[in-house]
Amino acid sequence: MAEGEVAQASERRAEAAEDRLLAGLQEGSAAAFTELHDRYASGLHRFAASRLPEDTQLAEDIVVQTLAKAVRNIDRFDGRRATLAAWLYGIARWQIREEIRRRKRRKSVPQAAVVSIDAVAEDQDDHDLAAEAAARLDAQRQVRELAGLLSDTEMEVLVLQCVDELSVKDISHVVRRSERAVHSLLHRARQKARERLVQDAE
To answer: Taking the CB of the first residue and of the last residue of the chain, which one, N or C, has fewer CB atoms within 10 A?
Structure first.
């Protein structure tokens, strides 16, 4: 089977699985809700944590609220306009922005980039603990500095593509920008990242 045919077959299987999941959610199936959670909760949590730093509980609350809202409004989902993933991230983004407006919080380091010394120690095998800790803490510093350089939307599109691996089409639906605008945002974000790395290297 040619590579293109394999990709098409994989896409058809994914669409069929999503159709089954949607049907289950519309029927109020508990198994379907469990599948929805298992499939999307971790990615939604990473996204929420990147926008609501240093507040793990709130990020978890956003995930619960997003999934609950999606289930309540599943009949409003239109698969012709967006994928289920894009729709869910759009709901999460709205919830996050509402929370930011309420708390007037500033963007900071994504939770996934925050590494404690204890966590570093737990990960060690035969590696040099001091060198590994220094490398991770330096990476954390670089992410913090980068977050300060990016706009909210640049940070969002960067996380959605590089961490959550959404397509440009899905990202455009989430942030409500054209695909061309998303490409431009990603280009600017990467350019700022490269400039920061060059400055650090000097």
So the answer is: C
Phi-psi region of 104 (alpha: psi -120 to 50; beta: other; left: phi over 0): left
* pLDDT band with cut points at 50, 70 and 90 for residue 126: very low
Question: Which residue bears the tokens 């089409």?
Answer: 169
Average pLDDT over residues 24-45: 91
Token pair of 68 as six digits: 């609950």
Is 1-107 a domain of CATH 1.10.1740.10? yes
Q: How many other C-beta atoms lie within 10 A of the C-beta of residue 130? A: 9
- Here the tokens at position 33 are 């809700």
pLDDT at 151: 84
Report how far residue 120's alpha carbon sits from residue 129's, in angstroms, rounded to the nearest whole number.
8
Q: Which of 17-21, 69-73, 125-129 has the lowest mean pLDDT?
A: 125-129
Q: What is the residue-wise DSSP string for 16-61? A: HHHHHHHHHHHTT-HHHHHHHHHHHHHHHHHHHHHHSTT-HHHHHH
* pLDDT at residue 199, as a whole number: 66
